[in-house]
Structures are given as C-alpha cells and as structure tokens.
Amino acid sequence: MPAVSKGDGMRGLAVFISDIRNCKSKEAEIKRINKELANIRSKFKGDKALDGYSKKKYVCKLLFIFLLGHDIDFGHMEAVNLLSSNKYTEKQIGYLFISVLVNSNSELIRLINNAIKNDLSSRNPTFMCLALHCIANVGSREMAEAFAGEIPRILVAGDTMDSVKQSAALCLLRLYKTSPDLVLMGEWTSRVVHLLNDQHMGVVTAAISLITCLSQKNPDEFKTCVSLAVSRLSRIVSSASTDLQDYTYYFVPAPWLSCKLLRLLQCYPPPEDGAVKGRLVECLETILNKAQEPPKSKKVQHSNAKNAILFEAISLIIHYDSEPNLLVRACNQLGQFLQHRETNLRYLALESMCTLASSEFSHEAVKTHIETVINALKTERDVSVRQRAADLLYAMCDRSNAKQIVAEMLSYLETADYSIREEMVLKVAILAEKYAVDYSWYVDTILNLIRIAGDYVSEEVWYRVIQIVINRDDVQGYAAKTVFEALQAPACHENMVKVGGYILGEFGNLIAGDPRSSPLVQFNLLHSKFHLCSVPTRALLLSAYIKFINLFPETKSTIQEVLRSDSQIRNSDVELQQRAVEYLKLSSIASTDVLATVLEEMPPFPERESSILAKLKKKKGPGAVSVNELEEGKREGGELNGGGERGGDSSAISTPSPSADLLGLRAGPPVTAAAPSAGSLLVDVFSEAGSGSLASYFQFVCKNNGVLFENQLLQIGIKSEYRQNLGRMYLFYGNKTSVQFVTFTTTLNVQAKPVEPLIEGGAQVQQVINIECLTDFSDAPLLNIKFRYGGALQNLTLKLPVTINKFFQPTEMASHDFFQRWKQLSLPQQEAQKIFKANHAMDTEVLKAKLLGLGMALLENVDPNPENFVCAGVIQTKAQQVGSLLRLEPNAQAQMYRLTVRSSKDTVSKRLCELLAEQF
Amino acid sequence: MQFMLLFSRQGKLRLQKWYVPLSDKEKKKITRELVQTVLARKPKMCSFLEWRDLKIVYKRYASLYFCCAIEDQDNELITLEIIHRYVELLDKYFGSVCELDIIFNFEKAYFILDEFLLGGEAQETSKKNVLKAIEQADLLQENFSSQSPHNCLSTP
C-alpha cells in the first residue's frame, strides 16, 4: 500500500471522503458537503495564514467535491498559491486543481502563467513536466500565446531530459490543436522530424503523435518523415519480441508505436523512392504473415496488440489502394476474422471490409464472403455488429448480387432494431433503384418496404418511387396493378395510400379494363382509406379524385357527390376545403377538353441525383462532413435567395392557353398543367427551380452573356462581369408580345435595384444585380419573376447563372509546380472525378475556348499527354481563397471524357466537377 | 482520444479526463448519456460502439468500467490496450488495485494517468518508466514531508 502509507496521507481528506461515502441519501451528502464548504471558506477567509499543508488539503477537498459533480466557485486563488510552493506535493495538487477547474479570470491566468514560466525555467525535470502537463491539460488560447514559442525550443534542445521531451511534444500537440496559428514550427521542423530517430522509444512514441498531426496540415514540410517512419517501422517489425525490453507488450514489440507509425504513413501517398517502398511493402507483408503464426500467448492482450497493428496495416494498404496482392491478402485475413469467436474482431473485420469493398482490386474478394455476412446479419447478438454487417452488405452490393442482398435486408427489416430501421430503409431504397434491371422489381421492393417498415419510409423514398414510375412508361401499368393489390390489405400504411393514390390517379386507366379493378372499384378502394388518413394524404387523395373524373367520366357523379359532402366542402381544414371547392367547380364548369389539359398526365421529372442518397449521406457515412458543409452552403445560398420564394411556388411557367382565364381565378399561385394532381406535395421534391431553366443555366458556366430564358411572352437576356470575388449582372427583360406586362416584379435578395414595374409591348427593361461571393456555394440564387399579362398572373422562377467558377482568378504555373500542387491535394475528399460521354463534338479548339471561359488558366505543355488539358486557378471568396486544379482527359475513341478536379476544399471540387460535366 | 471516463457499476463517476475543451454542462450531459449506454450493454457484447461522431471503447474491470472516446481514424484495439495498461499501472502502484483505492487516492489516479497519456495520446508506454516517474515524485514528497513534519498543525 505505497500511496496511502506515504507521509502526506491527508487524513482530513480521507475522513471527509469516508463521511461522504457513509451518507445514506443525496440530501445527507449535500448537507455534509455544504458543511465542509462553509468550513473551507472560513479557513480561507480567516485571519490566520494557512500553512501549505492545510491549503493543499482544502484545495484537494474542493477538487473532490467538484469531481462529485458539485459547483465550486472559490479556492482558485489558494490553488494558484500552491503552484509557487517549493514543496513538490503542494505544487502537484495546485496544478491538478488548475487543470480540472480552469477559470477564465484574467488576473488568475496571469498568475498561473507566471508560475508555469518559473517551473519551465527551473531546469528541474520533475517541475518542468508538471508545468507541461498543466499546459497540455488546459490547452487554452492564453497558454498557447504564452508558451507556444518556448516549448519547441525545449523539445529539440540537446540537453533536455527524455521525459521532458515527451511531455513537451504532446503539450505542443494540444496547443496546436486549439491554436494552430500560434504554433509555428518553422526552423524546428527538421529537428522535430528527426525525433523519429531518437534512441528513446518513449520520445519517439510521444513525438510521432505531434508529427502526424503536423503532417496532416503541412504534408510537404514534413514529408521527410516518410522514409524515417518506414525504417523505424521496419526495425520494430523485424525485431524479436524481447529486443525492445519494456516496450514489448505481451510479446508484441512496441504495438503503440507501430500503430502510430502506420497511422503517420496514411497521411502520405505511397513512397516514390523504390527502396523505401520496397521496405514498406516488406513490413506490411511481415505483419500479414505474423497474423498467420500461432499466438505466442493465450492472453487477449497479446492478440489485441498484434491485431491492432494488423488492422492499422490494413488501413494503410487500403489507403494506398495500389497493391492488388496486399489488398486481396488483407481481405482474406479479414475473412478469417469474420468467423472469429471474439466479437470485437468480427466487428472490426466487418467495418474494415466495408472500405475494402470500394476498392476495385478487392471488391470481388469481398463479395465472396457474402454468405458469412448475411449470416452475421441474422445471428449476431449485438446490434452494433449487425449494423456493421448491414453496412458491409450495402458496400459490397453490385448488379450481380443486388437481388439477394436487397431480399436479405428486407427480411432483416421485419425484425430489425428500431434504432437502425430508418437507415436500413434508405439503403434498401437506394440499392433497389441503383441496381434495378427491371423496374417491376424496383416497384415491388419499395412497396414491400412500405409494407414492412412504413413508419420509417421517409418522404424522399416515396417521392422517388413516384418520380421513377412517372418517368418510365414500361412500369406504369405494373405499378398501378401492384398498388391496387397492396391497397386491398385491410390495414395498410398511410405511405402506401399516398403512393397508391398518386399512381392510380395518374395511371389507374391502365388497369381499368379489368372488371376487378374498374374505375369505381379503384375509387371506392381509395376512398375507403380516406377517413383514416392525415390531412396531407387526404389532400393528395382529393387531387387523385379530380384526376379520376378526367380519366373516367363515369366516376364523375360519384366523386362530385363526395366532394360536395359537408365533410369535404365545409372541412375545417382550409387546404382540404379549398381543394374540394375548386375541384368541384372545375369538374362542373370546365369542358372535357379543358379538363383534359389541366389534368394532363405528369410530365417526366428531370433526372437528378437521388434525394434519398443525399439523405443517407446526411445521416451517416464517410462523406458526412462534406455533406454538412454542402448543407451549410445551401443555407448561405438561401440567404442570398431571400424571401420564402425558393422555387416553392409552382416553377413551371403558364403559357397563354384556353385555360388561362380559368386559371386566373385562383388567388394563389397559378395552376399549371402539372399542378392540380401534384398538389403542393411533389413540387417539394425539387427544391430547385423549374426544369425549363436548367439547360440554359449550365450553358452559362463557361460564358457570361446570352439569353437566359425565352418563351412566347418573355425573353430574358443576361450580361455579366466578374472580378475577384465581386460580380455584376445585367438582366434584360424583353416583352415579346404587343400587350404590356403590369405589376412586373422580381424577387431576389441580392442588392437588386427594383425593376420597372411595367414593360410596354415590344419594349425591354434592364435590371442590375451586384454580386459578392462570401464563401463557396453550390446552389444558384433563385430569381422569382411575377407579372400580369392580360389579367393572368405569370410566375417564373429561374436559377441565376452565378456559379462558383465565375470567381476564378487564373494561375499560370510550370509543369513541375503543377504536379507538386496536384500531389499536395491528395486527400481523397479533395478530389472529385467524373467520367462521362461527350455531348458535343470533341473539337480541341472548342474545348480550349470553353476551358478559358471557365476562368482558369489553361496550362500548355504541362501534361505529358498532349491530348489532355490541365488548368489552374484560385477561387476568390470573401471568406477564403480556394486553389483548384483541373485535368480533362478526352478519349476520342470512346467519345468519353475523364474529368478530375482537385481543390483545397472538397465542396468546391465536387461542385466544379458537377458543373463541368455538363459542358463537353 | 477525446476523453476517458471511469465509473462504477452503480453509475458513479470515479475519474474523468477531458482532452477537448467542453463546458461543464456538456461534460455532465455526455457522462450521463454514456454511463447509461454502456451500463445497459450485456457482458458478451462487443467493446466498441458508435456514439455521435465518435467511437467508444470500453472495458469492465471488476466493479469499474473504463471508457474512452476516440476519433474515427483511431485504432479501437490499441485503445483497449491503453485501458489495460492503465489498469496495470494502477495495479502495480496500489498493489492489486480496487475501486476504493481510486476513490481515496483519486489525485494519484490522475497523476499516473498524466504520466501515461498526455493530450489524449500515449506519452510513455513502458510500465517501468511511468512507475519510475511516479515513484520519484513520491520520493520528493517523502523528503519534503520528513523535512517539514506537520509543525504547522501543532500551532493553535
């Protein structure tokens, strides 16, 4: 019992702790604590100067009380006093108190920093370590300001004791994490890197954490660490288990250091130097070989330490993604772990295999384990392991096994834990769509999903199935038949009613020939669900009913009867009442032609990235961070768009048609051909502007002037200029008709000067918009235009062609510089790549013109292949500058392009890639 | 590593070490949540779990749970052995450590941890070296205490 028997037992403290432990209730404990606090307060305030021992004891008691979870608002000064005691034990308690109860009182901080400064210069290693520990534990900005300059000196000084070096390295790491701007390595860099060669294993173990963190931020300055790390690793891996004495842990030589070395190497691409690379590959092979050797001990610590290194090595192999042989070996090793009796290993193997599945070299090898993984999904007793199995199934899914995997996931859903159901639903929906060969399978899968886990089917999922059915006429009849059957179940989920209502409203006619699903049967089936549904679903059903009147005139009287009933036409819900009134009126006064025009079949939806995928990314997954940033970009974009106008209103433009007058009756947004059956529901699917403007929007990526929009009434021309992060855009609104447009307004919350409210027939008015790019963004500002033409309100939402590339400053650079920078931007998320088919003729001159129009510098004689194009530029935003490099590789034979963009900011790479893929 | 918590089977927190700046309120919330989550898990379950955007690695030793929060890229198994090495250090220092040792000598538990881990990273993994550092400190303590027997206590 060393500690307790040592001279400073602090009996008072032990008694106090026993008292607390003996308290029978929370109240008793609080009472005892308050008594003690009062006692300590009086001692501290008392006339008698307290000796060091008592001060230490009371400070320690306060600390204990705080750690129990009570607030402490005094005692800081006494603790600070202890720091300057020359008794080690008092100093130590003082530092502990300060580390745990940091106080931002500036006077105190000055005193604390003074005490630390004294100890750092005391040359007493024990005191120095105490001071360094305190800085590392607190890690505040004030401390960084005071000591960030001094600590690197201590770290590399020749006469610093090893233990002090260790503390100094990690202390610096903590300060770097909180205040990277204050920690400047500069002249120390090379000496810090060389700590990897230090004889003392402890110094290397501590220093490497610092080096890894610094390398992540400044890979170029620290790149000499790669060869040092490889040789250090190689020495450890090849050493016998006893060579490293106390750094051997359960027969494994230096496991912590090995893991950290492998981790450091993951900050860099594979070594270019052949010898270094050869040595490293040898190390990795040795580690893989050792996994096959019989264990040197039965202790779990032995296998954990050994496998920790193995998993870290596999991470490195996956990171390099360039050694097919190692990747496949890694996969086989993980395959063995999948059936290991240790749950921990099974969990980690599933997790690690998920990343292996995305490598082209090991994807097939991963797939061979499908049965084991499915079995894990069914039999693992721990939900977190099952979750990993589901993730892996998702990752290994491709066209060849999609049906099997989707079926397994669906059957798992029936019993899945509530916590992971929503995610599972999204995954099934994505896989079903991605790998659908025949769309009837897709429809079946989604309907099954709704049947099994309807509560967890989010809007995105059922919107998506409708989009797909509408866009593919080969599946519409099947979909109608299937939903009709599904709706016959006595209890079906509301989401099923929504999908069913929508699809029968559009395509019910395709199954109406069968007397078992005649129009009236369909209607009665839908209407039997009506009363059990929520308001939005009822609204959707009402829209389906009016569509029925158009599709099947024989249902008209029945449906009008329903619409006319008090429960509809006098419904207390405004939306329902309005729909009932309007639909009733529409059905009774409009001619069949008008009705047919208004209630025409939905036009196909424009193809775009699945909104479900976006949702899954948001929920989880490696890209989670970048998606968050995207979302932020969106929000900022939202401010730019101002108002609530974000394309919420109907985005299609109504053209003058026989129905114009009728539609003008509506007070709200004009009803367009698409609107009635969509209600307000499906418009939400597209948070962006209407499809009409999409093509012309992309057309402006590489040019600044042209016609943005044109229909029978209106032409909008655009002229724009950009400098640095500022831009100015002139919009020209031309009235093509002979009648004037009145109450012409545009809504856009950038400094748009108001536009002339009246445009004479044949005339043109101009509007100027000033633009400032605050930060990078993906969504274009939306411009909402409203005017009256012959009494009818026209409403139009356009994406303004302001894209991130407008803010490019071209950067000229030589070939060498280009490739150096290219390598610097080597983190996977910094790169975005797209391979796509050529949309236009692959004419070199046209391509050059387009790339110049993009705003980057087109660099000649950089790429070894003269067919390829490389560009460089810096995007200027108010917040930051984002350097970007681009490489476009045309393949004339295949009529394909490969486009690669690397930027210092991942969202920018991604966005540029999206924009450009539409251009060539 | 972002933080380490030691708590008993009854959910009483015995040691807390935070390597990232958080408010007291946030710390209490995290502690409450994690203690509850970990205690609810069954014995044979795996020692790792995802929690918020962190990975939790925990292990039970007798009546105490040791629980570490690490970042996405950190290594779970080596963290498990960090916990074990810390337990070994406590065991060696106290001589077959039990929960009571940590309650009554909580300050020692913190000192040992600081010698072993600093800023959330392993500082010294050799058991001998860590214990040597602590013993040296204890020695300093004894010297000082023998120089100054609590004479101040006797003054009224």
Automatic annotation (TrEMBL), chain A:
GO MF annotations in UniProt: clathrin adaptor activity
GO CC term, one of those recorded: AP-2 adaptor complex
Annotated ranges, domain Clathrin adaptor alpha/beta/gamma-adaptin appendage Ig-like subdomain: 698-801
SMART domains: Alpha_adaptinC2
Coiled coil: none
UniProt-annotated stretches for the region Disordered: 624-659
Keyword presence, Calcium: no
Compartments where located: Cell membrane; Membrane, Coated pit
Swiss-Prot/TrEMBL GO biological process terms: clathrin-dependent endocytosis; intracellular protein transport
InterPro entries the record matches: Adaptor_Complx_Large_Subunit (IPR050840), AP2_complex_asu (IPR017104), ARM-like (IPR011989), ARM-type_fold (IPR016024), Clathrin/coatomer_adapt-like_N (IPR002553), Clathrin_a-adaptin_app_sub_C (IPR003164), Clathrin_a/b/g-adaptin_app_Ig (IPR008152), Clathrin_app_Ig-like_sf (IPR013041)
Keyword terms of this UniProt record: Cell membrane, Coated pit, Endocytosis, Membrane, Protein transport, Transport
Main location per the UniProt record: membrane
Residues annotated as binding a 1,2-diacyl-sn-glycero-3-phospho-(1D-myo-inositol-3,4,5-trisphosphate): 11-12, 43, 53, 57-61
Membrane topology, record value: Peripheral membrane protein
Top-rank lineage group of the source organism: Eukaryota
Similarity comment text for this entry: Belongs to the adaptor complexes large subunit family.
Task performed by this protein: Component of the adaptor protein complex 2 (AP-2). Adaptor protein complexes function in protein transport via transport vesicles in different membrane traffic pathways. Adaptor protein complexes are vesicle coat components and appear to be involved in cargo selection and vesicle formation. AP-2 is involved in clathrin-dependent endocytosis in which cargo proteins are incorporated into vesicles surrounded by clathrin (clathrin-coated vesicles, CCVs) which are destined for fusion with the early endosome.
Listed name of the protein: AP-2 complex subunit alpha
Species this protein is from: Cyprinus carpio carpio
Automatic annotation (TrEMBL), chain B:
Entry-linked InterPro entries: AP1_sigma, AP_complex_ssu, AP_mu_sigma_su, Clathrin_sm-chain_CS, Longin-like_dom_sf
Annotated transmembrane regions: none
Primary residence: membrane
Membrane topology according to the record: Peripheral membrane protein
Pfam families named among the record's database cross-references: Clat_adaptor_s
Keyword field: Coated pit, Cytoplasmic vesicle, Golgi apparatus, Membrane, Protein transport, Transport
SUPFAM superfamilies: SNARE-like
Gene Ontology CC, one term: clathrin-coated pit
GO molecular function, one term: clathrin adaptor activity
Compartments where found: Cytoplasmic vesicle membrane; Golgi apparatus; Membrane, Clathrin-coated pit
Residues annotated as domain AP complex mu/sigma subunit: 1-140
GO annotation terms (biological process): intracellular protein transport
Gene3D superfamilies in alphabetical order: 3.30.450.60
Source species, domain of life: Eukaryota
Record's function text: Subunit of clathrin-associated adaptor protein complex 1 that plays a role in protein sorting in the late-Golgi/trans-Golgi network (TGN) and/or endosomes. The AP complexes mediate both the recruitment of clathrin to membranes and the recognition of sorting signals within the cytosolic tails of transmembrane cargo molecules.
Subunit field text: Adaptor protein complex 1 (AP-1) is a heterotetramer composed of two large adaptins (gamma-type subunit AP1G1 and beta-type subunit AP1B1), a medium adaptin (mu-type subunit AP1M1 or AP1M2) and a small adaptin (sigma-type subunit AP1S1 or AP1S2 or AP1S3). Binds to MUC1.
Family: Belongs to the adaptor complexes small subunit family.
Entry protein name: AP complex subunit sigma
